[in-house]
Prior knowledge:
Helix content: 40-55%
Radius of gyration: 26 Å
Strand content: 5-15%
Largest sheet: 9 strands, mixed
Amino acid sequence: MVAYTHRSAVVSQTKAAVRMDGAAFFEFEDLLQYRREQYDVSFACKPYLVDRTEDSAARPKPSDIKSRVLASAALEHTIRAIRVETGEVEDELKKRAVEIINTMAHDQNLFWARITASVLSHIVKRLYCGIHVNFAGLQKLREMFTQGPIVFLPSHRSYMDFLLLSFILYCYDMPIPVIASAIDFLGMKFVGELLRKCGAFFIKRSFRADPLYWTIFSEYVQAHLHYAKFPVEFFIEGTRSRSGNFLYPKTGMLNVICQDYFKGRVTDIMFVPVSISYERILEEKLYAYELATGMSKPKESTSGLLKAVKILDESFGNIYVYFGEPFSLRQMATQQVDRSVFSLRPIFEEFTCKESDAFVHKLSLYVVRELQKNVYVQPWHLVASALLNVAATTFNRGMTVQQTVDYVNLLSQLLRAADAKQLLNQYTTTDVLNAIQCHPNTVSYCSFTRQLLLTADDMSDPAITPVQLLIYQNMFINHLAHQAFAVHQLLRKPHSREELHLFWSEVVQLFMYEFVCVNHSLEDSLDQLLSLGAITEGSDGVLRINPSSPCVGVLSDLLSPYLLVLTCSINELCAQVGKQTQPKKTSFFISVIKTTLIRAYDAGDETGPQCVSTSLINNTLYSFRNLGVLTSKNGSLTIDAEKAFSLRARISELFRFPAFVQKVLFSQSCHL
C-alpha cells in the first residue's frame, strides 16, 4: 500500500509541475502523483481499510434496502391511496413497484468498484496532468464518517464528476457514496450496469406527478440515511452546466433528504459541498456546438463512449477538487423549522409546510454559494476571457502575449478584491503560454509575431470558438457580476449609493438565472471598486467612474453579451405581440432571438457571436417567466403584452439598448 503524506518532496517527472501561489500550493496535493508510482492493478488490489471498520461490517446489503422499501408503510399507504382513487388492482401496483425499485436501485459491490478504480486510474493518468485535492478538507471529512449520515453535494460540469468523488474517496480509504444518476445512463449497455455496481442509482428526470414512483424514490433515498448509513451524493444543479455558470438549484432531492431529519428518523445530517474546477472540460466542443447551434443533447450510448476513446491522446490539464466546510442540517434548521408539526403526522405520510419549503429553498441557495466560493479560478479561465473579449473581436482573431498578460492581471486583480480563490495572483508570459498548452484546438502561439491566435477550424460557424471561450469565462464571472453591473450603471451617469440601491433588486431579478447566488452585496461591490480606483466618491456622496482606470473596460467587456441578449430578447417579445395568435414553444422564441443576433453580427453591429449561446437566451426567458412577462402552459409560452412593454420601458431606463435594437425600436414607433 502506498503511504499518503502531504506535499511530497518528489514531483512527478512525467508531467510538468503546476505553478501555484503560496496559499494554493500548501492547500492541495496531487493525487495522480501517487498513482503514477503504482501499477493500476496494484491500485485496484490495495487494502481498502474501510472494510475493516465495525460500521462497514454491519452495513446492510443493497438487496436489504430494496426489501425494506417494498415493505415500508409509506409505500403501502401510497398503493392504498392510488387503488382508492383510480381503482387499479393492488397486485398490479405492487408489481409495478418492484419494477421501479429494480430499475432504480444500485448494487454497490467492492469487487466491481476495484475494477472500475483500476480502469479509471489508467484513464485519468492519460487525460490529466494532475488531480489536486485539498488535504485539510479530506482530513476533516475522515473524522465525520463515524458521526452520522453524510451527503456530498458536488458542482456538475462534466461526466467525469460522476465517479471522480468515488475515485478520490477510494484512494484515501473512505466509504464510497451512492450516487443519484439520470436514468439515461441505463441506455448505455454494460456501462450503465457497471455504474450501478459502483453505487449509482437511477432516477427519472421528472416524476413528481407519479405518486408511486415518488414514494419509492423518497423511501429509497431516506433508507440510505437512517438505515443503511451509506454516504449519498447528488448534484444540486440537477444536470451538467453546459454554460460553465452555476445553474439554479433543484430542491426535490434536497427536500427528500431534509424530510428524514424533520420526521426525526435521524438526529442530524452533514452536508459536504465539493467544488470541482476543470482546466479543460472533456465535453467542451460538444457544449459549444449545443449552445451555438441549438443542437439537442445527444443520447448517452456505449457506442458514443467508444468513439470518444480518441480523446485519450489529448491533455485536459488539471482538476482541482475542494472539499468545502461541512455543515450540519440540525444547526441550519434550528429556529427556522418547527419539527413538532411533523411529529403530529404519521411518519409514512408525505408532509411539507411553507416553513420547511422556504428553508429547503434557502438551503439550496446556500449550497450553491458555498460551491461558488470554493471553485478555484485557473489560469486558462482568465486567458479564455482575454481571448474572448479582445482576440475574438480583431480582424486576425489574435492578440499579443503581452496584451494577454496585462488583461489577465487586471482580471486577477479584480478577483482578488472579490476574495475569489485563484491558483495565481500575478501572471507572467510563461504562465500564459503554459495555460494554452492543453487547448491546441482553440488557440495557437505564433513565435514570430508573439501573438495568440484563435484557430480557424470552426470558421464554418464563427460562434463555436467564442461560445467555447465564454464557457470558461463563466467559471469565474459570478465573482465579478455585481461590480460589472455597478460600473455599467455609473457609465451612464453618476449616482449616489441610494440611487444605485433602487435599481439593484430589479437587476438581481432580471439575471437571477444567469448569476445564481452572487455572494456580494451592492455595498461590498462598491467598496471593492473604490479600493481598485475604478470609481470615486465625491464629498457630495455621488459615485463617478474613473475614466483612467483599466478595470472599467474589463468589467464592461464581461457584462456585454448578457446585456445584449437581455435587450434584444425583450424587444423581440414586444415585436411578437402583434404576430402571436397562439402560444409558442420556447424553441420558437430562442430561434427568433438568435436569428436577430446573428443578423446584427453579420451586419457588423455591436454584438459578438458568443451572444447566440442558447444558455444566455434560455436563462433570459426564464427570468421573463419569473416576472410574469411569459406564462407557461403545456410546454408553450404566451406573452403578456402589457407586462412585456412595461418591462421593455424599464430595461431601457436601466440599460443602454444596442444600436441595432434602437433602430428596430425607432421603426416600430414610426409604424405605430
